[in-house]
Amino acid sequence: EIMMPMRPFFGPLQFSAEFIYTALILVLCFLIHRRTGEMYELTRHNGIKYFRNAFLFFGFAYLTRFLLHLYMISNIATGMMLQKRIIQPPLIAVTGYFSTMAIFFLLYCTIWKRTEHRNFFIFSNVIALIMSVTAFFMRTPFILPALQFILLVFSVALIFGKRHKKVSHIRPLYLLLLVFWLVNMFVVGPRRLVPFQAKIVFQLISLAVFYAIYYKVSKWTK
Fold it and tell me: Alpha-carbon Rg of the chain, whole angstroms?
């Protein structure tokens, strides 16, 4: 859902629901980033730093998506759609890049002791760019979320493979993120398969999952 383009036609209700959903997820991303920042200041643990960076990039992804919604809503309000083909595709590609980098940081949380940061950062940037550009040119909305889901599954497998007590409290968060991504893959399904009412339900579930992540992170800082 993070990097998906808008459908060819949305009514006011659909636009309002998408706009509110994106805005709320954006707020939660930055709240989680702030809370994990407090944890990092107390512990100076690199795993927390990279986990925090993941939500920073999630926030950037939803910020770009938020701007895309603002742009399209302003076009509807003014009746001008002349630059849709020029403005919309780059914003979608940038959103896809940010969301992919967020998942790479989640992955790096689990392997940072075994991988040099600079090498991993270069590698993740190259892969994120390739994935975003590929999805952009193929014009298939489902490809990038599916690839991101596979990467997230790999990250979850790694975190559950660790037996260290320090990572035990992170595992539920990874599971929640996996549920969030899986739900959002249903949200981006074709309109004929996933009606608007069902997408509203999926979005509410997504918001509940993201709030649960924020709640768990908040409890750690108390």
Answer: 18
Q: Read off the pTM.
A: 0.78
User: 3-class secondary structure for the chain?
Assistant: CCCCCCCCCCCHHHHHHHHHHHHHHHHHHHHHHHHHHHHHHHHCCHHHHHHHHHHHHHHHHHHHHHHHHHHHHHHHHHCCCCCHHHHHHHHHHHHHHHHHHHHHHHHHHHHCCCCCHHHHHHHHHHHHHHHHHHHHHHCCCCHHHHHHHHHHHHHHHHHHHCCCHHHCCCHHHHHHHHHHHHHHHHHCCCCCCCCHHHHHHHHHHHHHHHHHHHHHHHHHCC
Q: What is the pLDDT along the chain (222 residues), one digit of tens a residue?
A: 444 444 444 566 777 888 888 889 999 999 999 988 888 887 877 778 888 899 999 999 888 888 877 777 776 666 555 455 566 677 778 888 998 999 899 888 878 777 777 788 899 999 999 988 887 777 666 677 778 888 888 888 877 776 665 555 677 777 788 777 777 765 554 454 567 777 788 888 888 888 988 888 888 766
